[in-house]
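Box 3.1. Reading complex inputs
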Amino acid sequence: MTSVDERPPSDITTAAAGAQDAVCAASASDRAAWLEALADVLDANASELIELADSESHLGNARLTGELARTSAQLRLFAQVVREGSFLEAAIDHPDTSATPPIPDLRRMLIPLGPVAVFAASNFPFAFSVLGGDTASALAAGCPVVVKAHEGHPRLSRRVAALAVQALRGAGAPDGTFGLIEGRQAGVELVQAPQIRAVGFTGSVTGGRCLFDLASQRPDPIPFYGELGSINPVVVTPGAAEESRAEIVDGLLGSFTMGVGQFCTKPGVVFAPTDTELAEQLAERIGADAKPLLNERIGAGFRDRLGELAGHDGVEVVGGSAPTAEHSAAPVVLRTTVDEVLRSPQTLLEEVFGPATLVVDYGSVAELRAVLPVLPGSLTATLHAAEHEDGLAERLIAELSRIAGRVLYGGWPTGVAVSHAQHHGGPYPSTTSVHTSVGTTAIRRWQRPIAYQTTPDSLLPPALQEANPLGIPRRVDGVMTQPGETS
Amino acid sequence: MTSVDERPPSDITTAAAGAQDAVCAASASDRAAWLEALADVLDANASELIELADSESHLGNARLTGELARTSAQLRLFAQVVREGSFLEAAIDHPDTSATPPIPDLRRMLIPLGPVAVFAASNFPFAFSVLGGDTASALAAGCPVVVKAHEGHPRLSRRVAALAVQALRGAGAPDGTFGLIEGRQAGVELVQAPQIRAVGFTGSVTGGRCLFDLASQRPDPIPFYGELGSINPVVVTPGAAEESRAEIVDGLLGSFTMGVGQFCTKPGVVFAPTDTELAEQLAERIGADAKPLLNERIGAGFRDRLGELAGHDGVEVVGGSAPTAEHSAAPVVLRTTVDEVLRSPQTLLEEVFGPATLVVDYGSVAELRAVLPVLPGSLTATLHAAEHEDGLAERLIAELSRIAGRVLYGGWPTGVAVSHAQHHGGPYPSTTSVHTSVGTTAIRRWQRPIAYQTTPDSLLPPALQEANPLGIPRRVDGVMTQPGETS
């Protein structure tokens, strides 16, 4: 199969820039219809796409079916966001000569940044790839999108892109609204292209930091929204270990092996009381069945990191072993102590991408609390606690809130809901910005504010006209106002 | 007068980090009270502070009186913002097992980033300095603040800082909530200090870019909100020139000489039809009276940039002349053509900090529209148009919206209202981010989102508890809900 688009990558970026005005000017209902057309085309071609995805990612039919449904659902959710209109953050201040200094007629809203780049991830061939959350939120914001395909699933990427171009054309979107490029060098040039106004990225710390640096070093720096890597600590309190050890072992096993451990939210480090013997309990439950990893590079990376950990002083492999076959891995459980983590935080607290987790035994709550401050920024942090532990849960939640973007009380971090109150991001290195890449607020990454001063109604964007023709929520003279309410 | 604080700068940063938990945990009404105490202490010491400010900045009593009033007003506005509570962006999703994937109980809000650095500006010794908008918005967000004093007004900075420390202590804020440091090297180290989580900066492109690069190159990059430099283009259409030339000349003269041309929103480039003879008209009206600039460095910079412009091919000095006395400057009007600007955009379209403006004559509307795309990012862009120019105003507003953060229809960009719908920011180099440094949304720069999943009510922050004990607006299951409304 050849590339969907034979043009050089720079032509695709130029086409995106050419589409900017029309995409930005399209009405909310037009843009919503484009998003729904993309959702429809994914659903209509589900079986072909899932088969293609499985052949390139080995993630299996069940998982990929769910992921495709999530991907079309999130396109539809962004259609709703566009129609509802709060995402424009429209605000109107009527003149107030008594203010210091006086306030003229001022009207603020968010407008699209312009053409943006989206770097697809390997581990979610639908949800974080060609038509994933970054693309959906950027199109919703009114930004043309150039996707850099992930080399892990090139045929799927091209097929989805071809369907997307066709669906967008059918829904009346301007040519250039969406484009796909391939290859590492083309990606580097995309981040540096003068027309590109922001970058969304999901991938490794090394690759992401390199592109972040390029974006920051441009003559005109642009925002780089990178989701890089995360160890997603889990803390099991003494009370929880006593009350629910069996459930915790079950849940943790399911979570760290889900998707063959290739989730950005995989629980990679688990703190548990020494006498819980959590690692041993887990080790008894893991099977020896190896499952295929995404590709050879991921396999090699998994083996290398496991080797580094297993060879480290004070780290013990309690169950499973490093894979020998390049493409497959069975679960691995490692164990260490708080002292070792405090001695070598950088080595022990780096992400292992694959089905492994490191249990850190702690001897006392004081020891547990001493180690939490050294944890790096993570997408998630999970607490399993019991009632009546004398305010322990409260203190631990405060400490975990410092290092994570999502804090779970019970449950497991894998499986990221796509909703209004979701946040998928966290302190560096888990993300390079304070924004989310999942959920409706992800749209904010692709917008910038603009204010119009003393501008006649007829020259204002509809979102800011006095009569509120779009019928959207607005902040009027400081007060949040629903459509229909008197302003 | 000695420094307000004899401790080494790093101790002050450490103290800010030490205050972080208590500042973050303080209730909205406590934080609001701190801001009001700061406003009160400015007002109560106004005459002493204004005299000190005038002795160091030469900006005059009237201007400084207005600026101090604006500074205390903006502290009080942020107290209102904190009490109203929308700035927390609280959102609640109740569980929905029918969603793909299922939605657990999720609750999102914005929390303070942690200790932040604020670099004071020279040209607004109150409003963009020690207790200016950056400090007000950061304290409102719940972040301890370390201000790097501007060397242009050291005595004022120390006095305001001493009053601030006293007022904060009196209002019950924790020690370390606010600190002042001085000196270039201390500023560099502040941006690199591990405890600092974000930086606000107002100043030159050169200095700002240097600090932006340091912030981006940290092992853990942090947001750098810099307002660097802006030429604030003004476009006068043929219709406006015909209808209102006299008013335009008057208004422009007032605007470009206000504060001796040392405003970040000073109109630096004015496009007018050749036959308007706008430059000549302005030149007739400017006086030869020199007024003192902020300091010798600003004076030298003004002379150098004027010399560069005046010596450039095709640029003519139509009125005024470069100052000889180091500390004073009279207004200067320069003139050139669209062709020259297209030939040397980088030289001709760089900010001149001081009382000078460059009139660019255009021969036709086509020529005008050809030059607009080369304009650099600006804080503001101003259009003077007439009715019945065949959609010209609409097209020009679209073009100016691309390069500016605030678009004015009529009026002048100097004098920046502090309100909800204000936006003070624009494409690079006018700012290094998509955020504003003026108005209530400036608070967003100092916050990050966090989501809590399936967390018991008693362990949630009050903003997210089911009963809405803070009485704040929240998004509940996707719908904006006012306090008191059923969720």
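In summary: Chain B touches chain A through 83 residues (CB under 8 Å).
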